[in-house]
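Shapes recur. One chain:

:::
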Amino acid sequence: MITRTIAVFWLAMGVAAQGLQSATDPLMALAENREVKVALDAIRSDDAALVADQIRFCEIAAPPFKEERRASALKQAFEHLGLSDVRIDRAGNVLGSRPGVASRPHVVVAAHLDTVFPEGTDVHVKRDGSVLTGPGIGDNCRGLATLVAIVRVLNQAGIKTPGSVTFVANVGEEGLGNLRGVRELLDHTLKSPIDRFLTIDGAGQFLANVEVGSHRYRVTFSGPGGHSYARFGTPNPIQAMGRAIARVSQIRPPDQPRTTFSVGRVGGGTAVNAIPTDCWMEVDLRSSSPAALANLDADFRRAVDEGVRDENSRWNNALNVFAKVELIGDRVAGRTPETAAIVRTAQSAARALGLSVPLTESSTDASVPVSRGIPAIAIGAGGRGVRQHTTEETFDTADAWRGTQYAMLLVVALAR
């Protein structure tokens, strides 16, 4: 049911969207609406249910490209909550719709299913007071639990939004997923236009309107190989890779805009007494600036070329080492302006709840909609987390319900 207070809120937001000044912040009025207050109170009183979901989802392994079991759990949760058209698309994304009074605006709220951890990782969650420890407990099992909690309290409070909301638990955000889930979502799965996109990703209280771009490479070094003694003097692919890594480590990217690199994985070789025929490394390059990322990319490629050149020159052999550079991940750097309605609404929602939610930059699923001109932001799921992307990741649940309140209020506000 939409009360008169909520109707006034939608009208006020429409006026604000036309650039007019309002004497009061309409989000304050929304937060004081009877139904919305019921939902906000339910989030706090039902926090134990959210934490239970967070632990339950975390204890279902979701390695990269193998998110099926966790996806099944989210599908069951969506069905239990009464979302319509619940389905899993061909990429593995789980979708459920909550129709509004009208189909527009159409808001997509997403949280990613996958983790960075390989198959076989122990996903048991340990609890010490308010602190949970487990791989992916904050990133992004808290986001998934928040997604479910939003639907639950909207149902409990009887809130029906003017626009429709599609809830998505998506695949492919981490590692070499290359945002495949959201790409599929926008390219094929969702037929109706998307007016606003919100992703809930990880612990903490933040509002990311800047998407960090990244290039991810796999570089394969190959050569003739041979016996380590009999063929000594033959250029060695692993040594060439070592020379390249040493040169990469000497790159000096700018501090502003923040620009980073990391050699994340290496492998190869046959035996300790064999010159290898091949080896490989995977490299992550990042920046919030497309120009800075392009410069870093050029420096990286130069480091690889020089590493190969130095190894071949060292031995002056007729046989050489070669390097093949493959782009295996590409996230576009982008920005949703601070003046955009979606950012201003998110800031107003934080003020209405008395929260400090700083603007920041991040690397999330919002990169895809931003690159396509769709208003998009990312927010944290509240709480406090440390050691992200390690098996000892922790999430402190104390007062984490505030983050869920923020996410819920923002979803209602965006569906205006």
